[in-house]
Each structure stands twice: as structure tokens, then as C-alpha cells.
Amino acid sequence: NLKGKKRHQDAGQKHFCPVMCKACGMIYSAANPEDEAQHIQHHQRFLEGIKFVGWKKEHVVEKFWDGKIILVRPNDPKYATKKAEEVRELVDHELGFKQVVLSCPAKTKTYLFVYDKKIVGCLVAEQIKQAFRVLSEPCPPVSPNQNALEHHRAWRCSTKPEPAICGVSRIWVLSLMRRKGIARRLVDVVRNTFIFGCYLSTEEIAFSDPTPDGKLFATKYCQT
Ligand code: ACO
Ligand code: ZN
């Protein structure tokens, strides 16, 4: 078996070095079948979104002409919480988070934007007590040796805690569906439904550890 032999040879050599897929951004080792399988799954989800056929009991919090927003809470049926987890995994992959544990799963709400039987947007909101404001200027480099990649997410934060109620730990929209107001509508809905009977101000919402995209969006959304 020539193919088998070739594989075997490759495996023993330099081919374990990781590659990055230009389409989906995942970094993986093409020589590792497990990694390869994971990549195929991520690649598909990244480009197509996650399928959503609908549930018997779904908690629709808002409907639009081009989709709807569904809320998943920690005590919802398994099929719902599993789906929320699946989406979170995809988002974490894209944001480069590795197995981030939610600070308090029991207080976490996941909002899913569904369009055309696919999940095209997701927002994970957690109940918090305080937040530190991101200041408008990024930190000056600590040392000339600090690399740019490390640097670009290091926003300077205020040291003064401010009261906040809802922390947006992740917000994500499928790449082909961006700039259609999906993230904006997700945050609007969170402000309206996170605490029953109360509309949160933008001051009461905090975006955790924003990416450059996330910061541009949050700045625009909060008009800061
Ligand atoms: N560049 C500049 N302005 C932006 C950008 C951007 N990339 N994204 C949003 N905005 C501003 C615009 O003013 C926009 O209004 P306009 O389109 O009328 O000009 C306004 O924010 C509203 O944007 P939406 O259409 O609601 O945002 P979208 O649905 O495209 O989602 C998001 C924004 C979630 C940041 C998306 O770009 C994304 O998923 N990025 C990759 C994942 C990511 O980085 N998420 C943030 C992580 S931080 C965190 O989770 C706390
Ligand atoms: Zn890929």
C-alpha cells in the first residue's frame, strides 16, 4: 500500500509543522488525521454557518424580516445547550481562545441569530458586577522587543472599576453576513432581555477583551 507507506514516512518527518488554512484561518497539522478531521469540520462551519433546523420549544426573543434571535439558557433542554456549546466552540476557534471556561455557566445566556436555517450570529452574555473601561489609546509598547501580535490586543484599561451588569464575553457574526446590523440587533436584544423588565443602558454593558473588530463595533455601538 503505497499511500499508507507515504503517510507513514510523512508522519515521521517534518510534516507535523502546522499550516494555516487561508479560507477559514485554522492552524492545524495536515499530517495529523485527527487535526485534519477537526479542520474539515471547522472549515465547513466557518464558511457555511451551523445548521439550525428548529426546535419544538425554542425561545424566540425577537423576529426580523431577515431572521430571528433565539435565547438559550443554562437550564434549557440538552439539545439547546449542546447547540449553544457547538457555536461557542466555533467562535472560540475564530477568536483564538483555547478552551476558555465560562466564569459562571449558570449565569450565562447565549443568543443565537438564525437566518435561513443557519446560525449566523452569536452573543454570549454573562452577569457581572464590575468592569474596567478600555481607554481609547492602545498601550505604548512596554519594551522594544514586544512583538506586534502580542501588542495589538493589549488595550489600555482604566484601573478604576465601574459598575456593570452584563458582560459580553463573545460576540460573533458569520463572515459573509457582517455589516448587516446583526451584532447591533443582538446587543439591542440583550439589553432588553438580560434582566427581566429592564432596559440596560450601554454603560451597564461591558465587552470583555475586545478584538480589533469587536472594539470598532463596540465603540460605534456605544457612541463613545
Ligand atoms: N470595522 C469598522 N466598523 C465596524 C466593524 C468593522 N469591522 N464592524 C462593525 N462596525 C461598526 C459599523 O459602524 C457598523 O455600522 P455600519 O455597517 O452601518 O457602518 C456598526 O458597527 C454595526 O455593525 P454590525 O453590522 O451590527 O456588526 P456585525 O454584524 O458586522 O458584527 C462583529 C460585528 C461581531 C465584531 C463581527 O465583525 C465579527 O464577528 N468579527 C469577528 C469576531 C470578533 O472579533 N468578535 C468580537 C470579539 S470581542 C468580544 O467578543 C467581546
Ligand atoms: Zn479551512
Concise structural overview:
This protein is α+β, with helices and mostly antiparallel strands and 224 residues long. It is 32% helix and 29% strand. Strand 10, helix 5 (182-193) and strand 11 form a beta-alpha-beta unit.
Cofactors, ions, other ligands:
acetyl coenzyme *A, zinc ion
Separation, N- and C-terminal Cα atoms: 64 Å
Number of helices: 6
What does the radius of gyration come to? Answer: 20 Å
Judged by helices, strands and strand pairing, the structural class is alpha+beta
What is the makeup of the main sheet? 7 strands, mixed
Number of strands: 11
Q: Determine the mean pLDDT.
A: 82
Helix content: 25-40%
| Helix and strand sequence | HEEHEEEHEEEHEEHEH
Structural key phrases:
binds acetyl coenzyme *A; 7-stranded mixed β-sheet; alpha+beta; 6 helices; 29% strand; 224 residues
Describe the structure.
- With 224 residues, this protein is α+β, with helices and mostly antiparallel strands.
- 32% of the residues lie in helices and 29% in strands.
- The protein is built from 6 helices and 11 strands.
- The strands form 3 sheets. Strands 3, 4, 5, 6, 7, 10 and 11 form a 7-stranded mixed beta sheet that branches.
- Strand 1 and strand 2 form a beta hairpin.
- The protein is globular and about 50 Å long.
- The termini are far apart.
- About 6% of the residues have low confidence.
- The structure holds acetyl coenzyme *A and zinc ion.
- Acetyl coenzyme *A binds next to helix 3, strand 10, helix 5 and helix 6.
